[in-house]
Amino acid sequence: IGQIKPELYQPGEAEARAGAPCGRLSFAVRYAYGSEQLVVRILRALDLPAKDANGFSDPYVKMYLLPDRKKKFQTKVHRKTLNPVFDETFSFGVPFAELPARRLHFSVYDFDRFSRHDLIGQVVLDNLLEAAERDAETPIWRDILEATAPPGCPLGCPHAPWGCPRAPRGCPRGTAPTGAPRRAADPYVKASLMAEGRRLKKRKTSIKKNTLNPSYNEALVFDVPHASVHSVSLTIAVLDYD
């Protein structure tokens, strides 16, 4: 009595295990020459990891046309599923000559009503000129890559696997390729209580605005029975609020 039993938190075969793949994303791309619009149809995702205690996720997709991050599109949230069918179409205004220098960036999130949404993973599509000239009825499938970066690099850092072309706030390498000066961040810390590769509970600190040296002095409390202390672990993540 009182012991934490991870199998009670996320039952079923679709459990999110440590090191499990992040699933696959399907979409179609075409270019409308008359209006100079890059038309992107987000179709579906398969085999997403479970992020919620019920064994499912509430996924949605956010999309940018890099290097522009000001304009973005977002699909609807699909509740309690690991295989959402989105079937939503969006378009970016972009001259044809710029297509070789642009990239599509998809971020797959798990919606959380009471806290910051969890990033499941990301997809970056290069070679937009080639993709736009494909048959628009033929879907493109890509693996959703776990959002990892070198220590201290925030999501979207140019040193991360997907190669964002500009360094965001707080990148430890100092400046972006364009020579922009290093700016401050809005950092906060998220702590997750883990057992057998699954997250049982999470807590987060307040957000400290415009600083690279935050001081928190906050207690994040997890209620863990004494008999279960040796079967759980903590994951600490430092994030920049955006």
TrEMBL record:
Residues 21-142, 146-242 form the C2 domain. Gene3D superfamilies: C2 domain. One of its GO terms (biological process) is calcium-ion regulated exocytosis. SMART domains: C2. GO terms for molecular function: calcium ion binding; calcium-dependent phospholipid binding; clathrin binding; phosphatidylserine binding; SNARE binding. One of its GO terms (cellular component) is exocytic vesicle. Keywords: Repeat. It comes from the Eukaryota. PANTHER family: SYNAPTOTAGMIN, SYNAPTOTAGMIN-3. Belongs to the synaptotagmin family. This is SYT3 protein. It comes from Crypturellus soui. The lineage of its organism: Eukaryota, Metazoa, Chordata, Craniata, Vertebrata. The gene is Syt3.
